[in-house]
Give the backbone structure.
Amino acid sequence: MNDKIKDKLKNLTTKPGVYVMKDKDGIVIYVGKAKNLKNRVSQYFRNSPKQSKVQAMVDNVDDFEYHITMSEMDALALESNLIKKHQPFYNILLKDGKQFPYIKIDLKQPFPKLEITRKVKKDGAKYFGPYFAGLDAREILKTIGYAFKIRTCNNKITSTSIAKRECLNYSLGLCTAPCTKKISIEDYRKEINKVINFLNGNDEEIEKILTEKMNTCAETENFENALILRDRLKMIAKLKQKIVANLPKDVSKDIFYLLNNGIDSVITYMAVRGGKVLGIYSYPIQDAEFDESQTLFNFLYQFYTDKLLPKDIILSHDIPDKEILQKLFEKKINIITNPHGINKTLLKMACENAKEYLDKNLEKNKLKYNNTIGACKLLKEKLSLKEVPLRMECYDISNISGTNKVCSMVVFKNGEPSKKDYRKFKIKTVKGSNDFASLKEALTRRLTRYVNKNGESFSEKPNLIIIDGGKGQLSSCYEILESFNLQNEIQMISLAKRIEEVFIPNSHNPVILKFASCELKLLQRIRDEAHRFAITYHRNIRTKKQTRSPLDNIKGIGPKKRDALLKAFNSSSEIAKADISLLETVPGINASLAQTIKEYFKNNPLTNDIEE
């Protein structure tokens, strides 16, 4: 503990709030909340025994700051926002955004359809799930489709609307054609109720229907459909294998088991719906909390976002602040921390899965760390950078013979792609094929946005800018950095493809990183991702230009009038030759617009390189 921390500890308040731990590079490594800031923060720096994960975090703390809040609820909200912003290494953060799929039925519609969604909304619809770990929501929908004739189209069907004709699914016997009123709302609702009954855990009716259809197909020698229905029955059998003995079909339970082996921790989640275990998923946990109960609380607070709430939540540990969770849920949930009977059996099942995960995934987690955060720290050391490059940006140019020039900006945070921060530029001022000038334009526009704090991704400072190219590209781009007087604030390097040389500003000799090392692989990943992103954007622009009609450039011509003109004359060249009176015969084209079309083609004669 340094003198800076000692002085701050003396002046800490006893009020509730949030504390932020930083390492010697100023990087946020942990964010926590406390009812009493003085007691909680001081606890980290006492000479008492601590868990290895807590001690590892404390060993890296060089400074801390804190924010006072009016209540614990405010502290919880602020803590959550800061964790999302800084993504600290020693905090629980569900970084993969794992949102399991649900099946949604909107019963407010006269003829509801089945949809797959990953977000549960308070919209009055019925949600079933989550489906994961071997249960595919799409396969369940297919199985339902072969048993019950529920529509799959996206048409908006009301009680009064009627379509011109039925779709192919009606001819195949897979839909009752509510779009043409071949079925009443009451009869369609009976089919929906059968689907809901199945999704609630009752398999008997759907199994009987599919078996009868399969036997009929076999008797009529329609063996192709018989095989399809046999596969659907296998899907039902797979669901039946997940039934928990002695468990009623109307229960819904979520089970969470936190297991710590002294070094690593895991929280295993198990979902039970309709008397079946729908899935089991394990989350590796890196959380520098003293108390495992608080760790479990922190996890639950993040977990129940856009998810379907069960009737019961069974936990391996008693948790603090249950009333805060109840406020989050906005409804009464039965939280069980000392289970008996079948609940105890379910918790034991989650425990066994947690043990297996820790045994099998220790090396995998270490490898991920080495390839991400560990690689960032090695880059700082090997390239003599001023700070760990936890936000890296890489730029690449794509064009064909100087046309449709674009530049990509790819962002890696903590050694992993942050796709929401990717940006792309159309090069506007450069003529011909000039990658140097194109890079300078894109970088100038990006740094201008940074200086002006314009845009969520652009306003965030990159720790390291990577240019795809050699010494020439680096020198050219470094001049832009100097023109903004940011050379001491933002670091820049370039990576040359031939032998993967790393060039550093104001250095004649390149740095050669060890072949196949984690730090070199990280640079190669972001370089290759920037190249892929630039090429994809370039292709999209080129495709749009190739399929664009000259009519799109005429004021007053929208998609409908354009299509009407092309239908009448077949091509833009024929439209250009037509006289005004002939143009006026096209629906929607009046005398004034016909005159505009003639004037346009007179001033902009067609060339051979325009494609319809």
Summary: Residues 341-371 form the longest helix (31 residues). The two ends are 72 Å apart (CA to CA). Residues 162 and 180 are 5 Å apart (CA to CA).
